[in-house]
Amino acid sequence: MTVELIDCMGTDVSVVNAARVSFGKQRDVMSDADVRLLHYLAREGHWSPFAHAVLSLRITAPIFVARQLAKHQVGLAWNEISRRYVDDAPDFYAPGIGDWRHRPVDSIKQGSGERLPDDVAAAADAAYHTALAAAEVGYRVLLALGVAPEQARAVLPLATLTTWIWTGSLYAFARVCRLRLDAHAQAETAEVATAIDRIARRHFPHAWGALFTECAATDQAR
Ligand SMILES: Cc1cc2nc3c(=O)[nH]c(=O)nc-3n(C[C@H](O)[C@H](O)[C@H](O)COP(=O)(O)OP(=O)(O)OC[C@H]3O[C@@H](n4cnc5c(N)ncnc54)[C@H](O)[C@@H]3O)c2cc1C
């Protein structure tokens, strides 16, 4: 899985200036008062100043992760590679041998439980790769028969890697990351959220920090 920054518009000061324009004011550098302002804006749900800062990302992840992330829509634009037009050999996501998890024991809401013991993980890994190989063979056979890629792709599994460009406001990406870094989120999806969090924190340390500190309590979507 990869998350690459394509473009970035704005800084912490852009968010501050979007708020301070109400009073005809403009800053060039952040002050302590501006940091407090960012926290106030986030706390009170004044989202629009945070929408003047934008990130554009190129993400490659398995379809099952992309499908979860595509549920986040407000403030975000998504364009994805199409296997209607592309029939390259597919790449598949595969967990590391130590990453196989048991199904949850107590709560169905928790998607997975403890790490599988090594011998079971090895068997799971073998079964997984056998299934991927069979799917890839089926895909190749269909293409060789002249089947349209848009139909042949139906045999490809959710592990198939897909690539999309995801552009959106800082506010929208902060919502994505708060929800997908939560303990209930799937680990593989959290991996993408962690990478987005790292990029956003580097470029917007104060605004991103305010959105995380102040908005967590107001998140409702689960
Ligand atoms: C851990 C976890 C488990 C999940 N499990 C499932 C699942 O089992 N099945 C499933 O289908 N989805 C599931 N989801 C997806 C979830 O229901 C949301 O669709 C997803 O988190 C996107 O939320 P968002 O707030 O970013 O949505 P967006 O659609 O981007 O909306 C952003 C915000 O705009 C507002 N908004 C958007 N649309 C409306 C509207 N029509 N009316 C009023 N306000 C609106 C809401 O405040 C919303 O928070 C899960 C999400 C998480 C994080």
Give the topology, please.
Layout: E1 2-9, H1 12-20, H2 32-43, E2 54-62, H3 63-69, E3 76-80, H4 118-144, H5 149-152, E4 161-169, H6 170-180, H7 187-203, H8 205-215
Antiparallel strand pairs: 1-2, 2-4, 3-4
The structure holds flavin-adenine dinucleotide.
At a glance:
With 222 residues, this protein is of the alpha+beta class. The chain is built from eight helices and four strands; from the N terminus they run βααβαβααβααα.
> Which segments are poorly predicted (pLDDT under 50) over 5 or more consecutive residues?
none
Largest sheet: 4 strands, antiparallel
Q: Give the end-to-end Cα distance, rounded to a whole number of Å.
A: 24 Å
Q: What value does the Rg take, in angstroms? A: 21 Å
Derived structural class: alpha+beta
| Structure annotation, total helices | 8
Widest beta sheet: strand line-up? 1-2-4-3
Number of strands: 4
SSE pattern, N- to C-terminal: EHHEHEHHEHHH
Helix content, binned percent: 40-55%
Q: What does the average pLDDT come to?
A: 94
Sheet-strand content, in percent, reads 5-15%
Shape: elongated
Give the bound compounds: flavin-adenine dinucleotide
Description of the molecule:
By secondary structure, the protein is an alpha+beta fold. 44% of the residues lie in helices and 14% in strands. The chain contains eight helices and four strands. It has helices at 12-20, 32-43, 63-69, 118-144, 149-152, 170-180, 187-203, 205-215; strands at 2-9, 54-62, 76-80, 161-169. It has a four-stranded antiparallel sheet with strand order 1-2-4-3. It is elongated. Flavin-adenine dinucleotide is lined by residues 71-74, 175, 179-180, 182, 184-185, 221-222.
